[in-house]
Amino acid sequence: MPGAAGRRAGCRAIPVKALKLEEEHSVSVNPREAFILELQDFLMEITQKDGVCGYESGIAAVIESAFSPFVDSARKDNLGNLIFFKRGKREDAPRVLLAAHMDEIGLIITRVEEGGFLRFTSLGGFDVRVLPGQEVTVYGSETVHGVVGFKPPHLIREEKKGKVVKMEELFIDTGLPEKELRDVVLPGAIAALKRDFITLQHRCRAGKAMDDRAGVAVLWQCIRELHNIHHEANVYLVATVQEEVGVRGAVVAAFGLSPDVGIAVDVCHGDIPGAQEHEVSSLGKGPAITSGPNIHPRIAERLLATASDYNLPYQKDFSPGPTGTDARAIQVSLEGIPTGLLSVPLRYMHTTVELVDMDDIKAAGRLLAYFVTGLDSDFMETLKCS
Amino acid sequence: MNELIKKLAGAFGPAGSEEGIRSLIREEVEKVCDEVFVDDLGSLVAVKWGNAKKNILVAAHMDEIGFMVTFIDKNGFLRFTNIGGVLKNTLVGSRVVFSNGVTGVIGREKIEDGKEPGLNRLYIDIGARSREEASARVKIGDSSAFLAPVSLEGHRVISKALDDRIGCYVLIETLKSLPASLPCTLHFVFTVQEELGLRGARPVAYRLQPHFGLAVDVTRTGDTPEPDYKMNVSLGKGPAVKIKDSSIICHPQVVEMLVRTAEKEGIPYQMEVLERGGTDAGAIHLSREGVPTGGLSIPCRYIHTAGEMVDLDDVQNSIRLLAALFAENW
Lengths: 386, 330
Hints:
heterodimer; A: alpha+beta; Aminopeptidase; Elongation Factor Tu (Ef-tu), domain 3; 11 helices; about 30% helix; B: alpha+beta; nine-stranded mixed β-sheet; six-stranded antiparallel β-barrel; 18 strands; about 25% helix
């Protein structure tokens, strides 16, 4: 396209206000540290709240109050997606959807058993190996505290020893006698895993539901950056529901908002011993920018270019199929939506010690904000297939 | 024996070939609703206009599982593929029927190394002596369904296709019992192709844009000897209020509507957490900007076999519950 290169360079020019970013957020201590401390507080708060797939209203309330100071409006749709809107400088400017899911995998009670034990199945894909020994909160007519139990090795028959336990062999023990338990907990009650936020060494933090509250933290970082940057694009930030049971919230959010561009923010596998290099991204080396058939090539290119223009750390990732993220739903909504995917590297996915690096979250938030500032009609032209 | 249940369950209608069952249902509902139409994929919609602007979609699927002919061999045996989730280990010896009335029986090649053979090792024998004779009666691409009698034992019905003709029956009887004046507009939808992945409910929900959705279908039970899943649902203990299945986590508000109505009317009910299987509710709730949706399920044993079983008390209680639900202005 003639002249496209020139226009692209032009629309990536740094808005004047953006240059003052560090200054505006600086306090007496090292500004970098101050910024992170706040972000960490937010992450701690949202990873200690429960929001199992389909039952996200509790976590939504916390997220809403943290985002509200920075947005023009907030609302919920029919399935509970929490939708924030931040107006751009031009009404006819592109509309961008930034989505991170707020639901977490959890448990649902199937039966109350003799002796006062609760049988359950999972909402979303739990690795059953990590469930025994966990603390849980059961949401019956009252909130009940429990632990996940199973037969100790001494009592397991020889031929079954060493075999991976099955979900149906596990149960929740609340300590309540059967009769009282039946009064409080019916089949269909939800249970969430309980785990305090763990501050590890370096910038590593661990806890439950980092998948994808880390992504919600990225959106929060992004909206705080955008608060101080000139941007033309109209921005919808959505904390989606029910991602873990099949990207269901994103399906209806994308339809309802009908954006010109969609970006999903989720987590990807971090580097661990035994994993192959191409399967993982390194913690602390920035968010992963995904390419592949689920992703519009111009969006991936623009994210990469933005990261490199602003000296933000990033990693490349390739996903050959439909990604298991909200990007999958957004891309094929309505007449098709150019979609991108930004991921925070995370170790021990779908456990209660999901581990992330604060720096990656911060960098992802900034990258997203700068990406938004570059969205104008010239860029939108480049998205058309020709 | 209830004649309407017998007619509905006995009718031919594998997914994609719902013409017969559709005209049967149409005859029943035409007299008792304000408007009837068929959408482009073949789902039948019966409308009862209400006073308020609210619009509720209630769906039961009229299709059943079946078998489609893929090949006719030189000796006249038919190879087939599944239409929906047929259980290959329950098929041998089952009778099947085609839309033109041709009947057959399912046979199997010899079992090697004790493994249950796949569908490609089964065949339908329509008694033909050659490919020519078989081809004169059925063609490649023809669909067949189970052929099985509908019988009543005490309070319980045994039949093929109770999934989900019993849901269709509940909808028809609910329609018949409704008063002339209603608070909400009701769309009773008899969907096609549910067994192939909720295909009929999707476009119909898109078209009707309901405020609430409800799927009336069957659910598994855990009350038989050593069941596959230790489900908390039993035959005869009331309709089941769905909490989740593999296609939906029901909207808490719709769950609440159903539970409150049952409590108020003194109708027995059970809570359903279904680990495997989806319903039209899954397609409805993801329509457009999302539709708060739930499910009311009739407990059913031996689902997807030629001998499904439901309890008539559960059926009657489902009708009572729905009639009371729709009398309210939600």
